Each structure stands twice: as C-alpha cells, then as structure tokens.
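Record Integrase catalytic domain-containing protein, 57 aa.
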Amino acid sequence: MESPYKGAKAYLSAIIDLYDRKVVAYKISKHNDNKLIMDTLNEAISKRKDIHGLILH
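=>
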C-alpha cells in the first residue's frame, strides 16, 4: 500500500492471518522493494513458535 507521508511516499507491507484476520507483522518503508517484503516475512516468522504447516500466499 502506498501513502503520502511528510511530502514523501511511504510503503506498508503487512501479513494478515486469514483465520482470525489479525495482523501478524507489518513494516513501513520509504522504498517498495524486496527488503521491505523480506523484513515483514522475517518478523512474522520470528513471532511464531512453530512454522510447520505455515502457508504464505
């Protein structure tokens, strides 16, 4: 998601649990790039005790 912020663009990357519709992890960046996505994914994985059976799509 792109949004103006203090005269510049800010990009939001979020991962939502589709079962309970809660935000599992999110990151905001000035750049819409792979680092933003990987940082979000790594945060989501680090918050889970067991990633066995985890599906990301």
